Amino acid sequence: MQSRVSDLKQNFISVIDPEVDPRWDRFVREHSVGWIYHLSGWKRILESCFSHMKGYYLVRLDGPAGNIVSALPLYNVRSWLTGNRLVSIPFATISNPLIENTDDLSPLLEAALMLSEELRCSQVEIRCMHSYEDLLGEQFGEVSNFRHHYIPLAESPEKLFKKFDRSCIRQRIARAQASGLELYSGELESDLRIFYRLLMKTRKRVGRPCQPYRFLKAVWNEYRPSGRCALLLARKDRTFIGGLLLLKYKERVSAEWAASDDEYRTVSPNHFLFWEAIKTAYSDGFKVFDFGRTSQFNKGLMDFKSRWGTAVSNMYEIVYPKQIVERSSSGEESLLKRI
Predict the structure, then answer these.
(1) What residue segments make up the domains of the chain, in order of their start?
(2) What sign does the CA torsion over 104, 105, 110, 113 have?
(3) CATH number of the domain at 5-147+315-338, please?
(4) Are 223 and 41 in contact (CB under 8 A)?
(5) How far is CA 154 from the centre of its chain?
(6) What pLDDT, in 10s, does the model give residues 276-331?
(7) Residues 84, 77: Cα–Cα separation, whole Å
(8) Model pLDDT for residues 82-108, shown as the tens digit of each residue
(9) Domain 155-286 is of which CATH architecture?
(10) Coil, strand or helix at 245
(11) CA 238 → CA 175, 182, 235, distances in Å?
């Protein structure tokens, strides 16, 4: 783009293409909050699957053509339903600007505003793991409508098990094991298709839109060869009744998509799969098992995750214009917030 957006000179901020710039993935790997959604592979996934999304990766350098010191991946999301927005990062359950100190945030936000004006975006949304409210100035606001549930894997599975809710988690795991459920590791695309059929049923049951199959296939193709994606399936009497699609990066395993056949809910396939995933994450040396983000207004899902003895923290969004803060605090989770 031949414009001021692609030539941001102030504070050595530039827009780079992470798919061709070898500095990017190295920077993500070395950064303390760099996660799988920051990698160049996520850009390949989104842009290959969704024609209305295009990534712009803002980076601050330590000098002309130097090392990356901070960054903010942004996506222009153009939709007739949700408008023209800048989002960091679409479909990411956890994300944060890649900064090491708070002084790095303001220049990136200024560059984001320039980009939004160039692209004629009406809104900017930046997902964060930490609150930056005191640094936002007059134009940006901050909302906190989501919670993050996770289990530190510092203790053995046997000790973790004792922290689970007795009736809602431990007894249901025991019931699943007694019913003869089998654990199956998905290795082929045909296994992914089985999972997707279960996912469509699950999303329909809970009244949520299902992402297209091409998206999950792209995630599978991008991350599975490197061991960063795994699929667990629960089988009973040769019938697949549940599935869990996981992402793995650095010290974290994240349960990203869960699905089950409601006809078999009495044998608790979801509880069986989560427990097996937690045990495997521990034995493989990971430090965190992540249940992802949850709307604070989704009481059922909040309760389900809390009963696993999870730690819970607030998640935040930096938003522009600031008036979005008032609308976002009304209570209902909008379709816009689901991506």
Answers:
(1) 5-147+315-338, 155-286
(2) positive
(3) 3.40.630.30
(4) yes
(5) 23
(6) 999 999 999 999 999 999 999 999 999 999 999 999 999 999 999 988 776 665 54
(7) 6
(8) 889 999 999 999 999 999 888 999 999
(9) 3-Layer(aba) Sandwich (3.40)
(10) strand
(11) 18, 9, 6
